Amino acid sequence: MTTDEPGGRRLVFMTEQKLSPETLAVSAGRPAHEHDAPVNTPIMMTSTFRGAGTVDTINDKVYARFDNPSWNGLEEVIADLEGASLPGLLFASGMAAVAAVEDLVPVGSAILIPKHAYMASISIAKKLERRGITEVIRIDVDDTQGAIEAIEAAAAARGVTAQNIDYAAPQVLLWLESPTNPMLEVADLPALIEAAQRLGVVTAVDNTFATPLLQRPLQLGADIVVHSATKFIAGHSDVVLGLAVTNRPEIRAVMLEHRSLNGAIPGPFEAFLGLRGVRTLALRMKKSVQNAQVLAERLSQHPAVEEVRYPGLPTDRYHERAKAQMDGFGAILCVVLKADVAQTEEVMNRLHLWTPATSLGGVESLIERRRRHGSEPVSIPESLLRLSVGIENADDLYADLDQALTLLTD
């Protein structure tokens, strides 16, 4: 059947049989099944739309800052994959999506955010704090009980309860990443989200590392899920995009207004690339996760490696938790080398297949020493390398790492 949603958009058809994520990634967000309809969503290059008379703010497109049919396919796909009841919202970047979420909070609010998280997400929260809008409270997702106590304290200080929660302007926002960037800590999402619900706290989860194929926070009770679609969703390191999804109409309305008024909109061609990328998400993730598991196992035995952080390893402290709440362990792993900064940088310089670069989630394997960014906390080791594992041959990827690491063992 079909469903009409706000904005006059049409959600993808649903059959009586529930479709698998692999099928949804390919079939959702297509044009209507009609004679001579295009198979793919067309790129609509226009800055405005024909119209006269009184504007219908629900159904009229009016201007390309408000809506563009080029966006709708990817918005529908991500909503279906995340199990959202409302269409997603596509943004110009992952940070534009993050900003739309964090901007929900009013004066006197609190944002709780992990001590290890994407630093730009933390920076937006701190900017709001400097402006006197919110208080930023850092939590340790490695300490579930401690994090819950911080949530309880923030809610109590602001008189927030499950009965008086304002989803459109939350007094307390819990921001979570799992696995965290770059330390790959796996948060106990069910426990933290349940505590937030009980206390009247809105929860947003950055699901970029896991993707909706491996983890669906909305189904655990989260209010908002955010993706840097630049990464695994688009998957080819050639476009910058962001996505946000929610089941709550009042939250979606405020984020949509934020996108429209701030002009945080994607271009139609970028939207096309993102939608084309998601069509192969299941295949790419399967191969990358397999490669990451192989590399983690081999690197954990390498004499030049002090530590491997990857929840797919049975020895990893988050292995059982990840196995319980995820459908796979992801394509990101971190290694801490037995090296100083200069030696670590020289290892990077010796690589041939691996590309030293920031970002992640592309078909090619990328590697980065995260402390090269001055904004990274000192709790991240200087010799920690974050590996975004691509779809190349795992033996070739390991051989390249091994030859570079001989610097530390010869």
UniProtKB/TrEMBL annotation:
Belongs to the trans-sulfuration enzymes family. GO terms for molecular function: transaminase activity. The keyword Oxidoreductase does not apply. This is Aminotransferase class I/II-fold pyridoxal phosphate-dependent enzyme. It comes from Rothia endophytica. Keywords: Aminotransferase, Pyridoxal phosphate, Transferase. It comes from the Bacteria. Gene3D superfamilies: Aspartate Aminotransferase, domain 1 (3.90.1150.10), Type I PLP-dependent aspartate aminotransferase-like (Major domain) (3.40.640.10). Its cofactor is pyridoxal 5'-phosphate.
